[in-house]
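ERR on first pass: missing label on line 2. Operator R.T. fixed the label and resubmitted. Corrected input:
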Amino acid sequence: MSDLEITDLHVRTEDREILKGVNLSIKKGEIHALMGPNGSGKSTLANTLLGHPSYEITEGKIVFKGEDITGSDPHERAKAGLFLAFQYPVAIPGVSVANFLRMAINAKREEPIQVKEFRTELQHAIDLLDVDRSFTSRHLNDGFSGGEKKRAEILQMAMLKPDVAILDETDSGLDIDALRTVAEGVARLHDEQGLGALIITHYQRILHYIEPQFVHIMLDGRIVLSGGVELVERLEREGYDEIRQEFGASV
Amino acid sequence: MSENESSANGAAVTVKPGRHRESTLYSALAGVGAGGKGKSLAALREEALAVYERTELPVWRRSGFWTTSLQELDLDKLEVRHHPQGELPAIVLETLPERKRAGRLVQREGSVVQLELDAELAGKGVVLCSLEDAAVNHTELFEQYYSKRLTSDRHKLEAANAALWSGGAFLHVPAGVVVEDPFEIAYALDGAGAAMYARTLVIGDAGSDFKLHEYNLAPDFDTGQALCAAAFEMYLRDGARCRLAQVQDWGNGEVFDASTRVVEVGRDAYCHWLPALVGGHLVRQHLELAVSEPGGDMAFRGVFFAEASELLDVFAVDLHETGPSGGDVHWRGAATGSSRASFEGLIQIDPGAQQTHTYLQIHSMMLSPKARIDAIPSVLVSADDVSASHGGTVGELDEAVIFYMQTRGLDRASAVRVIVEGFFEPLLSELQDEPLEELVRAKVAAKLARASEDIREYAETR
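pass 2 clean. output:
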């Protein structure tokens, strides 16, 4: 049985149906890539999985670790072990990275984390993502560059230790060095913590650093094709147009 | 401003609403107080009493924006109550942090009930005593500074303070004395039925360096009214430095507060002033920071948080009488429930105050559809080689930020708390005083907890 089981998910926002029956299952420790052109519904799926209030589920369900979370509050999903690395992380002025992490960790626990344990874990995450120590005393995402924001997302992921993480275009806007750091960080978390991940992207390059076991192609609100890495190569050769013609999706 | 104009202000409050010139009410004290000129304290009290008797309770009006009226106050039902030495009000014991301090003066309604001063500082000549004592035992300083910048004729409650104050606080830090720990001055009400006329005079002599924390406190109470009309003046002489903070929380009772606080920054002196106004049924504060000599510099900070049906009216003045001088005014306020907060920030640069550089910013956050914050910056510049500008933002809770935090495991109420605390944080961390920061954070958190239903409803309507 999979950890994250998405069945026939239909989602609408502002009177427009965006997801038209998505089926996907992810086990802890598996790396999945979800690819598709802009507007195909990838970010909608990511946000819906975490319970964004603007997206209305009209049909289908989301089961996580055996629990139906279709109607759960976002923080309950997070506590259950689901994580979203945002495409556009928002700034939280006045709250340092370290303080925010402490609050987030404590939200998941009965007893607050010990200072020493927190420091050790934070240092580990800092090393993993190759950021300066002073990074954690800056206000979260406030005045961060694009690369810093994405590093901060993965830093949070490293600290919160989810079972399944959704990475929504974490690779976009990153230069090649930042991309490598972020991707290697994710790969390490996969190795060390058995992280399961859904990597949403429309480029292939991040997948050179983290090899997915499963690749899914999304067109017009549906996953039209699933397979292994060979799909990435096919996309690289043919682009989405060939696949679109094959599956007759209207976008 | 001449004394005549000042008197006209006092009379203006008796004019029917809508007829007076509002600008006369929202104007800086601009220097000239009631004191000095060899007048005795008795004579000053007598003058003020005459004003008190002939004037009505004040109404402040900014047409099109707000009206702050104290006419609901039933002064006849209030009295100045006196309390024996040593009987500290519970609210003071509960609120003031356990900490090292340089000295403490606690006034309970009409009486000073606690006075302590570090023996070593006393040995260096530091004086902390009641203002009544200072009038008798420190006559030279008292006569030079008492009411130097505070008027007594602009409205009935200002006159009441000048005529009727008792107890009071006097702090003198002599030249060159540097004090690490803060002095604390607390004014506390017991509850309904009290009128408190709090009066404070602080002198930081040349080269002194100290911290002062003022507390204005009352416990919650259900019925009846209470009043605090405070007058606070601080004079920082050449090169003196002071970090001044004020925590005002009058609780949920019907407490009226109409107060004036003025700080004069002398030659090359510096003041960092941060009032935290976090509770009161109806609060009107005239806060004026005046740079009076070349080289004076200041940071004028402030936070406010109005809840339920509270009404807060802040008039903050950044006054430059000479240049070169610096100013930096930065306020942040939030409102929940059906509260109203009105902030007027005035930059006034007098003729000849060349090379003054100042900036005023006010940021507000609305947490309820029925709450309202008005922020009016104004600039009165009478010199040409200066820079004075202002800015500000009005914000609401950002649902994207709330969702972001929820995906990290914080529930909605916690997320809101983090946002609001983060909103105030840039100023609170400037206090550079952990116990005080914690106290204000706790008060903000308590206000948010009380308003959580309101905030949730607001989110759902948007």
